Amino acid sequence: MPRLSPRFILASLGAAFVASSALAQTAYSGHGAESVSAATLEQFRPKPLPADISRRIQSVLDLRAPGSGLLSPDGKHLYFSWRVSGSDQVWRLDGPDRFPLQMTGGEDRTLPLAVTPDSKWLVVSRDRKGEENPGIYLQPVAGGTLKAVQHLPKVQTRFAFVSDDSRFIYFSANDQKPDSYAIYRYEIATGAKTTVFDQPGLWDIADHASDGRLLLVKETGSQSREYSLLDRDGALKPLLGQGEQESYEAKFGHAPGELLVSTTKFSDFRRLYRWKAGKFEPLTGALKWNVEAFGTDDARRRLYYTVNEAGYSRSHALDLVSGKPLSLPWPAGADHQNIGSQTYDGRYVVLSVGTAKAPRQSLVWDWKTRKLTRWVTPSTPEEDTTRYAAAKLESYPARDGTPIPMFVRRPAQCEGADAPVCPVLVHFHGGPEAQSRPGFSPLWQMFVDAGFIVVDPNVRGSDGYGRAWLDADNGPRRLDVITDIEDASIYIRKAWAKNGVVPKVGVFGGSYGGYSTLIAMTMFAGAYDAGASAVGIANLNTFLKNTAPYRRALRISEYGDPERDHDALVKLSATSYIDRLKAPLLISQGASDPRVPVGEALQMYEAAKARGTPVELMIFADEGHGTSRRENQALEWGHILRFFQQHLLAH
Question: Which InterPro entries match (predicted)?
Fold first, then answer.
């Protein structure tokens, strides 16, 4: 008998899904902490952890690398973010391997953005309770009180750049309309704010020229962009992407009128081009992988770009004048090679190196002396990280035969033909336009140490494998590939069973990975023995209705239109299959989340509870889209570990 396609099967059920979704859906409105009562927050406050789990997770949270950092213009200081104090704060190093000095403090997440060219000010961003409405502040480079540039309630203020003369800070903000961004200029000396550009749209500054011209970018979809040139007199000239719905990333090039553009317009993979007067000239050739990031020094003489090779980052440099490759001194054995900041004169560049066995290191390369200096080597207290399990690239077959790549971390005792059958935890990444990557992961090692095999699939819709793979799940097409979620479990149960013993399989994810988890537990009930969803979407229609306005248009291009694609969104919502849910479920959520409203977690919990399914809910009153504070991370990850130990390891 021929196999019916997933879309045909789901479509044939038609109105039944609409009806069941209506029954499962809990009415709610809005997002953020104000959309949930104090009594509800108290009811679902995370409970204290067992002492043994708490000790383990606290030790794991000490194994973290600082951010790669921003170099001062003279190359003598490095400013970086570090969460060692409990929340992300700004620190300063006054030389290689020096003792770091803490620049900012408190409970609010604070990150370094730039050092002004005159070396007088540090520009930082600060957010409150994960609301994702950050403000911009100035701080003297020697330390001291923060001076607000702009920080407004329910407004995203996004830094762009500091002018070459150190007079102005340019930024964008949705303070005029919640679903539109205007461009502003702030004068550091006087505090005066001037509107530079305020046409409606999701606008931002992609790059700037020394003569005052701005390269503006307008987001039109989850991937598509339009680029325009804003002259000093305020005239806007369309350049690239208008009406195309193409994926572009662009910056100014070396020659007048030239742009450097990465795009999938001419290939399944994202490649780099020179663009001038509508013509594209290849820079990186016929790569088999995506160019995932690129940038130049301020003089536009050196190009830096990073290629995503099957999940491994490989970075390169190119002389933009001669077109010849430039050699970078990468240490051997790195999983990831990434380019950090550069000084304004281009002499120094930060190189970031990551391996499976140690936290990321930051090194500084001096193009003049050709000397590489290690600046940051993070410590690993009470832990031998050389024993950590390295992720191995494997694959499993989808039901249509497509190989789905996955990274697998195995405990030593689970390796080999004579090894016992070990429980498996399948982790689906967020996005969905993200990608699971190999590298150093103390949190996954914690699960490996507990006896779990950890699997990170990159199902269709993930980034890093070409445009066709990335777009395979857009809109109603998600119905054709969502079965990749179930097929992971089908393969693991069959291929990793031994002597009739089938491994227990759990599923976990955050954001879109949380959505994948809820789908795994409902639409594909029985495929997984337990599931934990963090900030996951339960119902695509209620999510699109209540997510922050600035995100709604971009998410519609990814998931589908609530009116045109309403029925498909119903069929793709976990609440439509709540009657199938039977295995234990853990849900965690931040109250201030502007992306996935707290109402999504509440409606899923209430629907599961009504069925009598074992379900737990944790709501973090002072978090947004995921936990950022140390104490909350300890609680969330500790309960996830406790939950899977309880349901997958207990006999």
Answer: 6-blade_b-propeller_TolB-like, AB_hydrolase_fold, Peptidase_S9_cat, Peptidase_S9A, WD40
